[in-house]
Automatic annotation (TrEMBL):
<dbReference type="GO" id="GO:0008168">
    <property type="term" value="F:methyltransferase activity"/>
</dbReference>
<protein>
    <submittedName>
        <fullName>PrmC protein</fullName>
    </submittedName>
</protein>
<dbReference type="GO" id="GO:0005739">
    <property type="term" value="C:mitochondrion"/>
</dbReference>
<dbReference type="InterPro" id="IPR007848">
    <property type="entry name" value="Small_mtfrase_dom"/>
</dbReference>
<dbReference type="InterPro" id="IPR050320">
    <property type="entry name" value="N5-glutamine_MTase"/>
</dbReference>
<dbReference type="GO" id="GO:0032259">
    <property type="term" value="P:methylation"/>
</dbReference>
<dbReference type="InterPro" id="IPR029063">
    <property type="entry name" value="SAM-dependent_MTases_sf"/>
</dbReference>
<dbReference type="Pfam" id="PF05175">
    <property type="entry name" value="MTS"/>
</dbReference>
<dbReference type="InterPro" id="IPR002052">
    <property type="entry name" value="DNA_methylase_N6_adenine_CS"/>
</dbReference>
<dbReference type="GO" id="GO:0003676">
    <property type="term" value="F:nucleic acid binding"/>
</dbReference>
<feature type="domain" description="Methyltransferase small">
    <location>
        <begin position="64"/>
        <end position="148"/>
    </location>
</feature>
Amino acid sequence: MEADSAALQRRGGAATWSGRTEHCSEEATFDGLTLRVPPGVFVPRRSALPIVEAAAEVSTGAFRVLDCGTGSGCILLSLLSRFSEATGVGIDADTKAVAAATYNAAELSLVERCDVQHRTFVDIAQMPKEGLVPFDMAVSNPPYLPAKLMKHVGFAREIQSQSTAAFAAGEDGLRAYEELAMALATPGVLKDAAHVVMGCQPGKAAWAAGPFQELPCYEVLSLHKECAVLRFSRVA
């Protein structure tokens, strides 16, 4: 618990405010992109950059990416900005995030290569039934803190302006990973040999990969400080 508390403080989420002002200006910079981040939408953090870098390392050409919990769209739009032939879909359970990511895609002239949808992680399983083309990659920086930590740590102003659902997921923090592992394994969501890149708390990549490793269709390729990279294979 204390380690989690310290980690949240480093990200500006404890009693000592980190001085972040994105929600005051409703604007943030991520990977060279200027993004609109209205109150209630998760503020892009440098800690999400390793997800982009890891995804970029295993990507080339005209790949199709699914960003789960897109927020402002920072990860999805960063990848589309780096790869001119890539296309993608961003999903979020928060309508404010969907609106923000859609706005940012338009402002960055990327709207023709991406779609932003109001959808939960569990709802990913419905995509094949709706006719969506399978993805070459799935990325996510999901909530990973235990729910009880939200009461243990005094919130800074920046977190008070955001939904706790963007930070916490269940009693142990694994719920989002469990939901994603199951939903992404649904036949027709991912292509065979698709990559899955999951963000995590620093030093907990193996922990984040755990729910995926419980299913035979995932293989861990690499564990980084702040993300895990897996490969999906269809199971006969």
